[in-house]
Design goal:
Helix content is 47%, strand content 14%. The protein is α+β, with helices and mostly antiparallel strands. It has two domains: 105 residues, Orthogonal Bundle (434 Repressor (Amino-terminal Domain)); 135 residues, no CATH class.
Length: 254
């Protein structure tokens, strides 16, 4: 279910009293849970494991059947929401506000094909991009140095493979050595319990129609065990947009 389909489903829900606090309708919760699980690309069993509920409970939630508030709270927290997000009574915000919030949350997302960053091609594709974005949800600060090192290697690879340097690595062996050095950095992250995925996102900017961004996802295997099999990431287009004055500033200083 894409964002527009979700909005259409929300509009079909019965109107709630505007002056009486009520918990979110179970049908709305069901749609949000299915959407949240889809974005994480989790199986229902994975959500059940992280929520510490049974598979049948997840299936009942996603059907819109009644389950306990405790189970709903656990499912909400497993998906990254606050405890009470699906159970706390509140005044309805109205269809216009609901649509606005849904568009803000989901309307800017774009699927990007990704794969484990384990090949020379993956490194080459990332290094040939004009920019890169490293997404590292739930990765502890203890990995900062290793992730920063990966960013520095990508910067070096991008510089060497760009048109700015004339034949810095004229031999195929020299390029392979560069790719292997970057893969060693990725391997160290994986050795320490992380999964590294990468892909290329077309992100045309004003005056730069061919602009591409390398999307690098770094997640802990402990909290994201399904990552190695993930084939798409949902990326917010706003995260890869250049600041409004970036081009004019660079031309003024160049």
């Amino acid at each position: 279910m894409n964002a527009q389909e979700l909005l259409d489903k929300i509009k079909e829900l019965p109107n709630r009293p505007v002056d009486v606090p009520t918990a979110p309708p179970v049908k709305l919760v069901a749609m949000v849970v299915r959407r949240g699980r889809h974005l994480k690309q989790w199986k229902a069993t994975t959500l059940a494991d992280f929520a510490r509920v049974s598979l049948s409970t997840v299936e009942r939630v996603e059907r819109g059947d009644k389950v306990s508030d405790e189970a709903l709270d656990r499912v909400a927290q497993a998906l990254g929401y606050e405890r009470g997000a699906f159970t706390t009574p509140r005044l309805p915000i109205g269809p216009e506000k609901a649509t606005e919030e849904m568009v803000e949350t989901y309307g800017h997302l774009e699927p990007v094909a990704v794969a484990p960053m384990k090949t020379h091609k993956a490194i080459r594709d990332a290094a040939k991009c004009q920019a890169y974005l490293i997404h590292r949800p739930e990765v502890p600060d203890t990995y900062d140095a290793d992730i920063a090192a990966l960013g520095e290697w990508l910067d070096l690879g991008s510089f060497i493979l760009s048109d700015l340097v004339k034949d810095p690595l004229p031999s195929e062996r020299g390029r392979r050595d560069l790719y292997n050095d970057i893969l060693k950095c990725v391997g160290e992250l994986e050795r320490r319990g992380l999964t590294v995925l990468s892909g290329v996102m077309a992100a045309p900017q004003p005056g730069l129609p061919d602009w591409k961004v390398a999307i690098v996802s770094v997640t802990p295997r402990l909290t994201d065990p399904g990552a190695p099999k993930r084939r798409h990431l949902m990326v917010d287009r706003r995260c890869v947009a250049l600041p409004p004055n970036a081009l004019s500033d660079s031309s003024a200083t160049g």
